[in-house]
Amino acid sequence: MRPTSEQSCLLEALQAEVFAGMEGMNAWLGQDLDQLRRIPLGVLRRGTVRRHGVTRWIRGAHRDRLRPHEVRVIDLHPALLSPEWWPYARFVLHHELIHATGHRMHDAAFRRWESSWPSPPVEEGAEAFAKMLHTASARWWWTCEACDVKHARQRRANGRYLCRRCGHVLRDVPAQGVRA
C-alpha cells in the first residue's frame, strides 16, 4: 500500500537508521547498499495480522536468481512505525533487506546474516508484536468463567469449545468489553 506522507517520513527515518547500522557490519561488506537504498518502502494494510514485513518482487523475476533491482517494494506493518515498536521495526527492515539480496528462504545462511543485527532480542519483539496485532484485531474473547482464562478470537465459540485448563464451556464476550 502507498504510505501516507507521515508514514513516508517515518519510513525514510527508519531506512536511514537501518542503513547506518548496516554500514558498520561485516555481514554487509561487499554488498551494494546504494542499490538496496533505492528499493521503495511501503506499508501493509492495517488489518494484516500475520505479516510484519514483506519483500515484493516484480512480476517475472526468476525465483532462483533474485536481485535487488527486481524488488518492487518492501512493505512494513504500519504499527511498526510507532515509537513503541521502533527497535523491532529496524530489525524487520533489516530482515526484509536480506530477502532483497535474493535470499528467499530462511535457511542457515539467512539466519546467520540476520543475527548480525544487534538488537532487540528477535523472539521477544516478534512474539510481542504478533500478540499485540492478534489482540487488537479480536472481535470476541472466549472466556472461561471458572478459571478466568481469556482467548482473543475472530469468531464466536457458541458453546462448542471447552477450557483446556478446567474443562468448562468457554463463553463469548464482545472484545470491546474485556481486556486480557
Describe what you observe in this structure.
- With 180 residues, this protein is of the alpha+beta class.
- 34% of the residues lie in helices and 14% in strands.
- The protein is built from five helices and six strands; from the N terminus they run H-H-E-E-E-H-H-H-E-E-E.
- The chain has a three-stranded mixed beta sheet with strand order 1-3-2. It has a three-stranded antiparallel beta sheet with strand order 5-4-6.
- The longest helix is centred in the N-terminal third of the chain and has 19 residues, at 5-23.
- The protein is elongated and about 60 Å long.
- 22% of the residues are buried.
- The mean pLDDT is 89.
The share of residues in extended strands comes to 5-15%
What's the number of extended β-strand segments?
6
What's the shape? elongated
**Considering DSSP H and I runs of 4 or more, what fraction of the residues is helical?**
25-40%
The largest β sheet comes out as: 3 strands, mixed
Segments where pLDDT lies below 50 for 5+ residues?
none
> Radius of gyration over alpha carbons?
20 Å
In spatial order, strands of the major sheet run 1-3-2
Mean pLDDT over all positions: 89
Order of helices and strands: HHEEEHHHEEE
Our count of helices gives: 5
Calculate the terminal CA-CA distance, rounded to whole Å.
31 Å
Structural class: alpha+beta
